[in-house]
Amino acid sequence: MAVVRCNQGHYYDDEKFSRCPHCGIFAGVEEKKNKNADKKGFFSAFTRTKDDSKTVAKHESNYTDNRPMEDTVTVSLESVEKAPVKKPSDDGKTIGMFSAAKGNDYVTGWLVCIDGVEKGRDFRIRHGFNWIGRDYDMDVILQCDISVSRQKHCAIVYDDRGNSFSIVPNAGNELYKNGEPIHEPEKIKTGDVIQVGMQRYEFIAFCREGREWEKE
């Protein structure tokens, strides 16, 4: 795994994506809406005469639809019940180097809040990209700090090949390591202090020189 920067300044994992996923190249095509709906049936309008007790038909339509009928298919309930159910496929999905049973979800390090409203709380770091933000779909959720972006404020990346960690800024969000601003990916080690938003976190590596999860 390597942290790659695209022409627009986005960082991504080149093992998971052949091209930058942030540039919108994988955006789906919007479904086209039908502008005109078919109108079917017979229409007749009625109006009342001066004599309220009588209703006279103003127009009667003998409209006949001469369009060819579409072929119809009859399916029995029995055949539907016996039809095999297609199971979800892994096609198009990114599969991690480790399966869940082989360590893809194993802890590799921690962020421990040492200053701020989350003081004393720890956040686990795992293999690959660990995106930090306020939304619930982030890997590290910092919901209490409104100065943190909802989506992908920054990321901490564990590279299993090099058994090393990096901090990766994103979209111009403010990020500091040991009091210095970060504008490019930088290596981090145990004891480094990372400031994300208004809070400071100390990084602690579980995987380090002489200790890493074995690949099964």
From TrEMBL:
Record's protein name: FHA domain-containing protein
PROSITE patterns given in the database record: FHA_DOMAIN
Organism lineage: Bacteria, Bacillati, Bacillota, Clostridia, Lachnospirales
Organism: Lachnoanaerobaculum umeaense
Transmembrane segments: none
Coiled-coil stretches: none
Stored InterPro entries: FHA_dom, SMAD_FHA_dom_sf
